[in-house]
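User: Please check token order:
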Amino acid sequence: MDRELLQKKLQFQKVKNELVQVNGISVLEILDFDSFGWNADFLRNIGYTSSTRQPDSLMDVNANETEIFAWVRSKMQIENGAVFYLLCGQFWAEIQIINAEKAIPDLWHGSGLTCGFTLLTEDKKTLLDIGLDSRDESHYLWDRYDIS
């Protein structure tokens, strides 16, 4: 087995293990990042990697978790039964929200190293990104990217 394939399998297993720990979601499928025909150039072209893009919404980093989670739920359109693709490094995890109240804190805190996450809508027409960002370290940022 070549080294690159082994690395990918290890990363896949790591994502799978992390997703099992997220309360309030059901994992439907895990896909390679390029499953939708996207690459780094595509993300750059829609502005996802731009350091000058103005955010679509802000939340003060000193807000309490109740306020933050209500903002996250509203901006990310997280409701029970909704299906999204969650960006997990080099993979997309197709997830269904089973319990939004439990899912939001776990998605928000992710691996515990940062606050935020990226979702692709089920129809693959909108990318939603929320969390800490170097563009403004006093606020959490929310960005919406319409994909044509």
In short: The longest helix spans residues 3-20. Residues 119 and 136 are 21 Å apart (CA to CA).
